[in-house]
Each structure stands twice: as structure tokens, then as C-alpha cells.
Design brief:
Elements lengths: L21 E3 L10 E6 L9 H15 L7 E5 L3 H13 L2 E7 L4 H9 L3 E5 L8 H17 L4 E2 L7 H16 L6 E5 L4 H13 L4 E7 L4 H4 L26 E5 L1 H15 L5 H17 L4 E6 L14
Parallel strand pairs: 2-10, 3-4, 3-6, 4-5, 7-8, 7-10, 8-9
Antiparallel strand pairs: 1-2
Helix pairs in contact: 1-2, 1-5, 2-3, 5-6, 8-9
Length: 316
């Protein structure tokens, strides 16, 4: 009989967050490259690594006494953070108000509502993510908070609890790759994932190369100018306050269409259904793998499941 390994039973689905597997990519990686692994964060309860962030934000606020039973939490969100916060709040008995936009995937809006969130949408005239769109979403969330002083701001873009939530991801990678990771890359929205992961990876091995990513059509970090793009969850149109230059080595930008094509390849060739930010991550990981060559290890993350994007044109 083959060895059976299964996770231990847990008392709450919150304890099912994390401990996600890493998978080596085979068919999309050209010969002569480093090994490329992706951490399947799409296997978290809501299908996104944002579950880690949401759990940390809420539980740290509880620990400090910032929220109490019956509190209302407010967040400006592109959808994945909102879905994760709605999920955590539903389990813990908090009311959650998500300020979002119709520029983001309908599946995300429906998921937030399914978990009991109150969803308020800011209209995008173009249907695209523009530099001003997220500013409008954030402004509306701030207005709600100003009108209701007792509400709690999750504030993912400024809240250092986000970094704490992702440190465990880094700790898992250290265990999963005892020989070390040569390069790690990730697209940034609030930057919590890359910063939290990098803190742990660089503490374990200072020469691990950490690369921050953004869409080429919105090169704010690489060129200092904003732009329009359609990669949800990243490139918010401002420099993320949590982005710490001491924790990364380089910033790169890649074309959105390459990211979208990579999503289609991952589905057809690797059996991994993922969103566009993951496509960008893998495009960059392959470039790093080509530069580093055989015998090296490059790791990135599958940010969320592609099931959130099936009503759009990503897989057409």
C-alpha cells in the first residue's frame, strides 16, 4: 500500500489557510533553464493568497482591541482582498463593506456578496483599470469611514499586518526548499506578499534575488508613469507604501498580453488555472530561469484561481 499523507483535521476553515504545495513547471519551461516552481496559493479557501492577508488583518486588529464583536470593517479592494476579508468576517461575525469597481471580475463581486459583504461599486467608464480608478475606490472607502467613525479600516495598502500575514508563506518556502531559492518574483498591488515573503527568504539566505513585477503598460515603478491595464490586483496607480527597497533587488515590467497568453498555456500545458497576475509572475520567472541557467531554483506564486475569470475573455 502506498504511503498516504493527509493534513490533520482542523476546527475552523481559517486553519485551512496556507501550507500550500509547490509544483515544478515542466512544459512551459524551455530547455537549458533553471527549475521553476509555483506555490499554489489558489488552493487557499477562497482560491487566493489574500486569505493570508485577511486573516492577519482581522486577527491582529482583534489582538490589539481595535475591533470587537459586531464591528464593521471597510476596505477598498480589487476583489480578491475583498473576497478574503468577507470570508474571514463571515466566520468571525463582523460586518464587512467592500468598495470595489465594475472593472473587476464579476465572480469576485459575487463571491464577496455570497459571504455576506455589502458591496459598493465605483463605475469604470472604460471598463479598464486606470490610474484614477483605484484612487476613486479608495476615496469612496475613506468617505464611508469618515461618516462612520466607529468603523475599522482594513487599509491593505498601509497596514503592516499584511506583511505579517505573508511571512508564513516565506517560512513555508524555506521548509519546502531546504537547499535554498536562487530567485523569487512577484507582481505587486499592495506589495505585502512580496515584502513578507522576502523578509523570510533573505533572512534565511541573503543572496536570494527578489524581483518585483508590474504591467508594462502601467510602468509606475520602473518608469515613474501610470497607465491603463487589465491585470487585476496589481498596478494600483501609486507606489505601494509597504514597498521596501531593502527587501527587493530589482523591479521589472512585462507586457499584459504575454501574461494573458501564459495563463492560457498554464491551463493547457501544466493543468494550472490561474489569473492574469499569475501569468505575469510566470513570464518573469521564465526570464529569470533563462538568465540563471540549469542547477538553479526560481519560485513564484499562483496568486489566485482562474475560476474567478471565466466570465471574461481570458481563456477565449
Amino acid at each position: 500500500m502506498s504511503e498516504v499523507r493527509a493534513p490533520s483535521p482542523v476546527d475552523t476553515v481559517l486553519n485551512a489557510i496556507g501550507n500550500t504545495p509547490c509544483v515544478r513547471l515542466r512544459r512551459v519551461v524551455p530547455e537549458g533553464c533553471a527549475d521553476v516552481y509555483v506555490k499554489l496559493e489558489s488552493l487557499n479557501p477562497t482560491g487566493s493568497y489574500k486569505d493570508r492577508l485577511a486573516k492577519a488583518i482581522v486577527e491582529e486588529a482583534e489582538r490589539r482591541g481595535d475591533i470587537q464583536p459586531g464591528s464593521t470593517i471597510v476596505e477598498a479592494t480589487g476583489g480578491s482582498t475583498g473576497s478574503s476579508l468577507a470570508f474571514v468576517c463571515s466566520l468571525k461575525g463582523y460586518k464587512f463593506i467592500a468598495v470595489c469597481s465594475d472593472a473587476f471580475a464579476k465572480e469576485k463581486l459575487r463571491t464577496m456578496a455570497a459571504f455576506g459583504a455589502e458591496v459598493e461599486n465605483v463605475h469604470s467608464p472604460t471598463g479598464k483599470i486606470t490610474p484614477g480608478l483605484f484612487a476613486s475606490v479608495v476615496k469612496r472607502a475613506k468617505t464611508i469611514l469618515e461618516e462612520n467613525k466607529e468603523y475599522y479600516a482594513a487599509d491593505q495598502f498601509n497596514n503592516k499586518d499584511c506583511i505579517l500575514g505573508y511571512k508564513k508563506l516565506g517560512e513555508e518556502l524555506v521548509v519546502q526548499f531546504p537547499q535554498g531559492i536562487d530567485a523569487f518574483c512577484g507582481a505587486v498591488g499592495g506589495a505585502g506578499m512580496v515584502m513578507g515573503t522576502s523578509k523570510v527568504l533573505k533572512a534565511a539566505r541573503p543572496d536570494t534575488r527578489v524581483v518585483v513585477l508590474e504591467p508594462e503598460s502601467a510602468p509606475l515603478l520602473t518608469q515613474g508613469k501610470g497607465g491603463t491595464h487589465g491585470i487585476e490586483g496589481i498596478g494600483p496607480g501609486f507606489v505601494p507604501p509597504l514597498l521596501d527597497s531593502a527587501l527587493y533587488d530589482e523591479i521589472r515590467a512585462y507586457p499584459e498580453e504575454e501574461a494573458r497568453e501564459m495563463c492560457r498555456r498554464l491551463a493547457k500545458e501544466e493543468g494550472i488555472l490561474a489569473g492574469t497576475s499569475t501569468g505575469l509572475n510566470v513570464v518573469a520567472a521564465l526570464a529569470l530561469a533563462k538568465e540563471l541557467g540549469p542547477g538553479k531554483v526560481v519560485v513564484t506564486v499562483v496568486c489566485d484561481t482562474g475560476l474567478k475569470y471565466t466570465s471574461g475573455n481570458l481563456y477565449e
